[in-house]
Amino acid sequence: MTIRNYQSTSPTLGERCYIDESAVIVGDVTLGEDASIWPLVAARGDVNHISIGARSNIQDGSVLHVSRKSVSNPNGFPLIIGNDVTVGHKCMLHGCVLGNRILVGMGAIVMDGVIVEDDVFIGAGALIPPNKRLESGYLYVGNPAVKKRPLKESETAFLKQSALNYVKLKDEYREEQA
């Protein structure tokens, strides 16, 4: 794995994290306990910070980045990912805030200033334009994404289960490397 400092700031890893050896984690990036970063993920906390919550997983080929602070946007846009979040393969998350128990479908793009409340499904290939707010308890699909329908009870339960599935998988990978 490649974990690199940027301007004297090092990534911070919680207990029992898994980071694939092909992933690149740079600068001000914090991972919560039991988080997992899979092959070919790039997380670059250089001009702002990235926080990834407990039991969250970032799957293969995803790109995580931030927007710098400026006169017009004094805080810039950090990337904040809550607990029990599943980010599917080849997603792009840029300067957004994801709550807890979210599934971001494969190939989705979530842009600067977006806020995703807890318990949300974002469909594969969805584009969430800048500064949108996705309401808790719904499925969002399309380009640009629209609120499609309320989540079923089974789908809401799956959000937590998906994260737990990846905790189990990363534990298996860690055992193989021990």
From TrEMBL:
Coiled coil segments of this chain: none
Gene3D superfamilies cross-referenced by the UniProt entry: Hexapeptide repeat proteins (2.160.10.10)
Protein name per the record: Carbonic anhydrase/acetyltransferase
Pfam families tied to this protein: Hexapep
Classification via CDD domains: LbH_gamma_CA_like
GO molecular function, one term: transferase activity
Top-level taxon of the source organism: Bacteria
